[in-house]
Design goal:
Blueprint: H1 11-31, H2 41-49, H3 60-72, H4 93-105, H5 117-133, E1 140-144, H6 147-164, E2 182-187, H7 193-200, E3 208-211, H8 221-233, E4 237-244, H9 256-266, E5 269-274, E6 298-302, H10 303-306, E7 314-318, H11 337-341, H12 360-369, H13 372-395, E8 399-401, E9 409-414, H14 422-439, E10 445-449, E11 452-458, H15 466-491
Parallel strand pairs: 2-3, 2-4, 4-5, 5-6
Antiparallel strand pairs: 1-7, 6-7, 8-9, 9-11, 10-11
Helix pairs in contact: 1-3, 4-12, 5-12, 6-7, 8-9, 14-15
The structure holds pyridoxal-5'-phosphate.
Length: 492
């Protein structure tokens, strides 16, 4: 069935198939009245199970009809202004175009001989980003599948540098600290991928030290200083400090200059996890919130969060490009040592992956078609919206809101006017979220603060309005009241 292979003979089929797919998605986007239909796994599973994969449909339209039934109709749509849950963004059209081009050409940016210009585009996108961050002339980096991998790679480099750095062991001799003594310091609200990375890197189960935050969920430098001092006193090696620029729950930004100062003093690698806050790099009026990020040894950016790019698109950036050698392994068939000596630009020498998507193309087309300022303006809009939403929550006696947003998240919960037990408030908020999801009218997230259940809006859609926020808050309060009313009825 060679007619299915994309080549010079099949361009008509390619055009028709892709156009048909585009039409289906366009029709779906136009018809979506709610971010979600409320479909349950029990609804969908039988439909899925009834499909016999050994009986192909032999027809694109029929396959798309079927896909409509098992996926498109009931998908969760991030473009909808009442999708307010996780760090998912609506996507910009130049990036979607990039996705279509990169998958059709199917370059793999592991070696020059599989990508040619693709490698140079990726390198330009890395250089453009490191310049925005201010990492200096020796900076480098590589695209990754997401913030989780970017954090893992950054911490791998930090671990190798700590081992190679001749850090004194507790006998005072210069040597390789054993993995069991390496510590990573990150705030108590840092991303869980830091702990995952520590595990994968073979560190001790208590290797990640949770540094306390202030009221605004920012790491306390005094607490960090105390923990660093304690490490040294205990003969432990502070291998890295992870500062978060935009925590996943609160959008809070750790005090980067003070943290950088402490990292200098203790000669510790500074990793800034800006998976969420990286959108500030292109903001016209909020860039100053990232002041100090240029002092990092490594930085994580997730373009698929605050640059409005489709999943996946992320990068790990480093101040000293030479440290990427810790990810370099040579294979005769792919990237022999000689190629490195001949300065063949093989990105695999810098990556944890081998075959790798040409995700940089999406950012490239975004910058070439829209420009960086337009991306920053979109992110500024959602940050401003969050401030509006915070004011609304403060003024509304039905809700308790946690911190004034720095970026675009709001963490809050419904509190009934007539006092009830704390556990009932927890349950009412959980029930409201579940009922809202089941109705599909809006999608919101949940999290916990000081052991209590809270709800969360992550605002990444500039199409969302204050009216949307007001309407969703009414829905939440309605569901919570209904839940509390119901439990009181049952109790009486
Ligand atoms: C989302 C996020 C990550 C993980 O990124 P993925 O792209 O989901 O792997 C890491 N750190 C922070 C602060 C995040 O918000």
């Amino acid at each position: 069935m060679r007619s299915h292979l994309l080549n010079d003979q099949t361009t008509d089929r390619y055009r028709h198939a892709v156009t048909e797919g585009v039409e289906r998605v366009a029709a779906r986007l136009a018809a979506t009245e709610r971010p979600f239909t409320g479909v349950t796994p029990a609804d969908l599973a039988p439909r899925m199970a009834s499909i016999d994969l050994d009986r192909p449909l032999y027809d694109t339209s029929a396959a798309l009809d079927e896909l409509e039934d098992v996926y498109l109709r009931d998908a969760v749509y991030f473009h909808h202004p009442r999708y307010l849950a996780h760090l998912n963004c609506p996507v910009v059209i130049p990036a979607v175009l990039g996705e279509a081009v990169l998958s059709a050409v199917n370059s793999s940016v592991d070696t020059w001989d599989q990508s040619a210009g693709g490698t140079l585009i990726e390198r330009r996108m890395i250089d453009w980003t490191t310049e925005r961050v201010g990492l200096g002339p020796a900076a480098d980096g590589v695209f990754t599948s997401g913030g989780t991998q970017s954090n893992l790679q950054a911490l791998l480099l930090a671990r190798e540098e700590a081992k190679a750095g001749g850090t004194g062991d507790d006998t005072g001799a210069v040597g390789t600290p054993d993995l069991g003594r390496l510590r990573i310091l990150a705030s108590e609200v840092s991303h869980f991928s830091v702990r995952k990375a520590a595990k994968l890197l073979g560190l001790a189960s208590d290797a990640v030290i949770a540094v306390p935050c202030d009221r605004d969920k920012r790491m306390q430098p005094t607490a960090l200083a105390r923990e660093l001092e304690r490490c040294v006193a205990d003969g432990l090696v502070p291998m890295a400090v992870v500062a978060t620029a935009g925590t996943t729950d609160f959008g809070s930004i750790d005090p980067l200059p003070e943290i950088a100062e402490l990292c200098d003093r203790y000669d510790t690698w500074l990793h800034v996890d800006a998976a969420y806050g990286c959108g500030l790099l292109v903001s016209a009026c909020r860039r100053h919130l990232l002041a100090g990020i240029g002092r990092a040894d490594s930085v994580t950016v997730d373009y698929h969060k605050s640059f409005f790019q489709p999943v996946s698109s992320s990068a790990v950036l480093v101040r000293d490009g030479a440290t990427l050698r810790h990810a370099t392994y040579h294979a005769d068939y792919l990237n022999p040592r000689q190629a490195a000596q001949d300065r063949v630009p093989n990105q695999v020498d810098k990556s944890l992956q081998t075959t790798r998507r040409f995700d940089a193309l999406k950012l490239w087309l975004t910058l070439r078609v829209m420009g960086a300022d337009a991306v920053g303006a979109l992110f500024d809009e959602v940050c401003a919206l969050a401030t509006e939403g915070w004011r609304m929550l403060l003024a509304d006696p039905r809700f308790d809101v946690v911190v004034e947003p720095t970026l675009s998240t709001l963490v809050f919960r419904y509190v009934p006017i007539t006092p009830v037990a704390p556990a009932s408030i927890d349950r009412a908020n959980k029930a409201a979220r579940t009922a809202l999801f089941a109705s599909g009218a809006a999608v919101v997230a949940g999290t916990s603060v000081n052991g209590r259940h809270y709800l969360k809006f992550t605002l990444l859609n500039p199409e969302t309005t204050t009216d949307d926020i007001a309407a969703v808050l009414d829905l939440i309060a309605g569901h919570a009241e209904q839940y509390l009313g119901g439990t009181l009825d049952r109790a009486s």
